[in-house]
Amino acid sequence: MRHWLLAALACIIASGTGAARSAAPAPITYTVTPELVSGKLADLRVDVALEGDDDGVTHMRLPDRWSGAEDLYRAVFDLRASGARLKRMSNSELELTHAPSAPIVLSYRVRQDFRGELTAGDGPPFRAVVRQDRFTVLGWALFAEVAGPVGRPAAFRWGPTPEGWTVASDL
Contact at 8 Å (CB) between 3 and 11? Predict the structure, then answer.
C-alpha cells in the first residue's frame, strides 16, 4: 500500500511539472528601420514580431509615459498588423485578435511629435527625436510591449540603414 501511495504521489507531482505546462513563447523580435523620403529621414519603422497568446487575443501597450514625459503614443502612427485583426482600445492600448498562438507582426512608424530641436528648457528629454539627418530615441518612447506577465524574452535588430549612416544601440 505504501509503495502504491508513493507511486501515485510521484505521478501527480510529475503531471504538475511536465507536459501539462505549455511551452514558453518564442522571443518577441523588435526591428527598427530608418525610413528616408527624398534622401532625408522621415520616420522610424518598428516591426514587432511575436507569437500571439494561446487564447487568440493579445493585448499590447504603445509607449505612453516615462520619467515625466507624457503621451509618448502621439509619436506613433500608421499602425498595422499582419496575422491578426488590430483594434485600438485607447490612445496606448491595442487588442490583436488572431488564431491561437499565431505568428503576428505589429508594424508602426515613429516620428518626432514636437517642432524644432529639443532643448534643456523643454521638459523631460525623453521623446523621440527624428530629424532629417539623425535620430535618437529611448526604448520607452519607441517599443510597444505585450501586456501581461513580464519576463518574455525579446530580441532587437536593425533593419536596412541608409548608406553611410552609423547606427548604435545599447540593447
Answer: no
Q: How far apart are CA 158 and CA 33, in angstroms?
A: 6
Does the pLDDT at position 58 exceed 50?
A: yes
Residue type, 139: G
| Residue bearing cell 528648457 | 121
| Confidence (pTM) | 0.81
For 93-108, what is the mean pLDDT? 97
53 vs 16, residue with greater confidence:
53
Write b or e for each residue in 139-167: b if 16 or more Cβ atoms lie within 10 A of its Cβ, otherwise e.
Answer: eebbbbbbeeeeeeeeeeeeeeeeeeeee
43-57 as b/e: b if 16+ CB within 10 A: bbbbbbbbbbbeeee
Q: CA–CA separation, 64 vs 159, rounded Å? A: 24
* DSSP string computed for 86-131: EEE-SSSEEEEE-STT-EEEEEEEE---SSS---GGGS---S-EEE
| Those residues with Cβ within 8 angstroms of residue 19's Cβ, 6 or more apart along the chain or in another chain | none
C-alpha cell at 13: 507531482
